[in-house]
Specification:
The protein is of the alpha+beta class. The protein is 37% helix and 34% strand. It contains two helices and four strands. The protein is globular, with a radius of gyration of 11 Å.
């Protein structure tokens, strides 16, 4: 499970969010490119419950996102 916190058409914008998330202590990366959009992940998790807990933390920090089951 991945937490997707942004989708960007411009790679540099995705990289900027990755840098911000990493500076805030998250393990972020550009996860993939889907339909022309670079998807930024704030982390990968083995279970949905772990991802939900992490997503709650991100939301408390002011980020938005959703869980991608992969």
């Amino acid at each position: 499970f991945q937490i997707i916190v942004g989708c960007f058409g411009v790679q540099n914008n995705a990289n900027n969010l990755v840098e911000k998330l990493n500076n805030d202590g998250h393990s972020a990366s550009v996860y993939d490119q889907n339909k022309g959009l670079h998807r930024v992940s704030a982390g990968g998790f083995a279970s949905k419950s772990e991802a939900e807990t992490a997503l709650s933390t991100l939301r408390a920090e002011g980020y938005s996102g959703w869980i991608l089951a992969k």
